[in-house]
């Protein structure tokens, strides 16, 4: 789509609303954001509502600033900062003047998960909240000790977002890289988590009464002057596994038992017994 076509789209939206949009509301109209104010005014029913969904809000803001600089519309500071189409803008609408716009040149989004470097192209970086969704699935995978889970990706990534196939493909690739997860059709498959000792043997949860587990846990700290770790012998891994399960509510405990557990963690704070 050319700069002229994008500009005509924006100008059309302004005119169809009788020049009653500010810069941010125009962005919402072009992106098809159904805000309360736009719905109340019936603006979500105009022809150009959502006409620019192929671009993100950040991209549209970048384009609109260029249009403002090229004076196809101006801001009426005396009237709620509404946008007013200029004579030049009218000529653009009629196809008499061409407008050139520069696409955003930002490098995109970058973050780290599970030691993996994740890069998101600028074209799709605003499509979803990449960090939040990635972390949400990561937390589920990290604590999934009960049974395999399947999460419909359509509940995470809306069907109507721009470039959805590209977004879904990238998101699935992130889950594969960071958490070694796979897909089965539209479902993210999160297997039951298995903890291993330093030799690769599976470590089961402790099957002892709570009081005995707590006593073993305290004795380990007193003897070693540290908390049990995961990459260790199976007995130590089992203690660490029990500690995490109790601390994160994965095992049922009575209020009295939880009070005993907290007393131990207060007596031996983790920052001093690493």
What this model shows, in words?
The structure is a single chain. The chain contains ten helices and nine strands. 22% of the residues are buried. With 274 residues, it is of the alpha+beta class. A three-stranded antiparallel sheet has the order 5-7-6, with helices on one face. A two-stranded antiparallel sheet has the order 1-2. Strand 6 (182-184) and strand 7 form a beta hairpin. The chain folds into three domains: 3-93, Arc Repressor Mutant, subunit A; 109-190, no CATH class; 196-267, no CATH class. 43% of the residues lie in helices and 12% in strands. The longest helix is centred in the middle third of the chain and has 16 residues, at 164-179.
How many distinct beta strands? Answer: 9
Structurally, how many domains make up the residues? 3
State the helicity in percent bands: 40-55%
How would you describe the shape?
elongated
Give a short account of the largest sheet: 3 strands, antiparallel
């Amino acid at each position: 789509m050319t700069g002229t076509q994008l500009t005509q789209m924006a100008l059309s939206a302004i005119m169809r609303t009788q020049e009653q949009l500010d810069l941010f509301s125009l962005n919402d109209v072009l992106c098809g954001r159904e805000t309360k104010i736009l719905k109340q005014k019936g603006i979500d029913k105009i022809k150009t509502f959502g006409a620019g969904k192929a671009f993100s809000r950040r991209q549209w803001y970048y384009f609109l600033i260029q249009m403002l600089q090229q004076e196809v519309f101006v801001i009426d500071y005396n009237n709620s900062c509404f946008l007013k189409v200029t004579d030049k803008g009218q000529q653009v609408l009629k196809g008499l003047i061409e407008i050139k716009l520069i696409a955003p040149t930002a490098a995109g989004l970058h973050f780290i998960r599970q030691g993996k470097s994740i890069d998101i192209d600028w074209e799709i970086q605003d499509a979803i909240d990449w960090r939040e969704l990635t972390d949400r699935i990561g937390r589920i995978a990290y604590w999934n000790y009960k049974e395999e889970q399947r999460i419909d990706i359509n509940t995470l990534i809306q069907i109507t977002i721009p470039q959805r196939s590209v977004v879904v493909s990238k998101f699935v690739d992130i889950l594969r890289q960071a958490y070694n997860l796979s897909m089965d059709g539209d479902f993210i498959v999160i297997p039951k988590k298995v903890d291993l000792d330093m030799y690769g043997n599976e470590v089961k949860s402790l099957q002892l009464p709570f009081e005995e587990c707590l006593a073993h846990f305290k004795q380990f700290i007193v003897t070693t002057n540290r908390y049990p770790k995961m990459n260790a012998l199976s007995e130590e891994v089992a203690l660490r596994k029990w500690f995490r399960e109790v601390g994160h509510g994965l095992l049922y405990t009575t209020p009295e038992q939880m009070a005993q557990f907290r007393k131990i963690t207060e007596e031996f704070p983790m920052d001093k017994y690493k």
